[in-house]
Design a protein that fits this description.
Blueprint lengths: L5 H16 L7 H13 L8 H16 L5 E6 L5 E5 L8 H18 L4
Antiparallel strand pairs: 1-2
C-alpha cells in the first residue's frame, strides 16, 4: 500500500462499509466504530440495549487504540465481552483531533486485519 494517501485509504474504508454493510456513502465514525465493535465482540446482527451499544463502542475504541499503546487486551468476561487494560491515558484532544486519531486507528485496523 505504498504511495496511497490517508484520504485514499479512508475512501477505501468507506467503500468497504458501503459494500459490505449497505451503509450510507460516508458512514459516520460512530457507525464504523459500532460495526468494528460488533465484529470484535463476534455477536453479529441482533438487538442491542443502549448499554450494550455503549459497551460495543468502547470495545471498538480500545481495540483500535491498542496498536497505539493506549490499551492492551486483558481477557474475556463470562459474557464473552473483551476487556482491556489502559496502558496510557488518552491525551486531551479537540473533537477534530479525536476524529483524526480515530480515522488513523481505523485505517490501521483495516491494514492489520488485511481488509483492504
Amino acid at each position: 500500500m505504498t504511495n496511497i494517501t490517508e484520504g485514499e485509504l479512508w475512501t477505501k474504508v468507506e467503500e468497504f462499509f458501503v459494500k459490505n454493510f449497505d451503509t450510507e456513502k460516508h458512514p459516520s465514525i460512530d457507525s464504523i466504530l459500532f460495526l468494528i465493535g460488533v465484529q470484535e465482540l463476534g455477536s453479529g446482527q441482533q438487538k442491542y440495549t443502549k448499554d450494550d451499544k455503549l459497551n460495543i463502542l468502547h470495545i471498538a475504541v480500545c481495540r483500535l487504540l491498542e496498536p497505539f499503546g493506549y490499551y492492551k487486551f486483558s481477557h474475556y468476561d463470562d459474557d464473552g465481552f473483551p476487556h482491556f487494560d489502559e496502558l496510557e491515558p488518552l491525551p486531551e484532544l479537540k473533537p477534530n483531533e479525536q476524529q483524526i486519531l480515530m480515522k488513523k486507528a481505523i485505517i490501521q485496523y483495516f491494514m492489520d486485519e488485511e481488509l483492504f
